[in-house]
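Narrative summary of target 7.
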Amino acid sequence: MADDGQELARAQRAHWQNTYSAHPGMYGEQPSSPAIHAAAVFRAAGATDVLELGAGHGRDALYFAREGFTVQAADFSPVGLEQLRTVAREQGVDQRVTTAVHDVRESLPLPDASVDAVFAHMLLCMALSTAEIRAAVGEIRRVLRPGGTFVYTVRHTGDAHYGAGISHGDDIYEHGGFAVHYFDRDLVDALADGWTLDEVHAFEEGDLPRRLWRITQTLPR
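Modeled conformation, tokenized:
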């Protein structure tokens, strides 16, 4: 998927930029249910700082900040992050939130073992190859402190859109302009190698509905 993957990545970046520009705050102000769950898990683990990857316009990052966490919010859309910063100032939590434009295909600009917890809602199931997903989780493992927790969600192969639309190979299908890498259980288990896999929770979201897994895994101490 090398050349095609590069072109798909550019197209998806432009698509998200245009979408956030056309629909500011498109997901609303309320946090996602996975973020509410993650905050409780992180708090129980004693985490004080959270890295959110694929933060978009910030509904979950802002929720973490309101819950008292220090938050680093990363996304490849400058438009989305500008909306996040604006709302952070309006809500009075801007002192607890920093942002960074970052493509998950690249190394994280953070030191080893520097964050307590990582959250990623439907980021790893974007237009990423399996190799890129593995590399991203490797980076997450690198920046987490021992005992750190990673909560992420992905659409899976039981989803109604799996196999529909334009196929890009590697279980990636594009439907309505959005490309999704649908996970099977083998990929989830492979990404948890060397971690403690705490939970794989099935849930649904949206009108289709989208079918997802919420995965919680912890690094050994």
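Strands lie at 49-53, 70-75, 97-101, 115-121, 144-155, 166-169, 172-175, 178-181, 196-205, 210-218.
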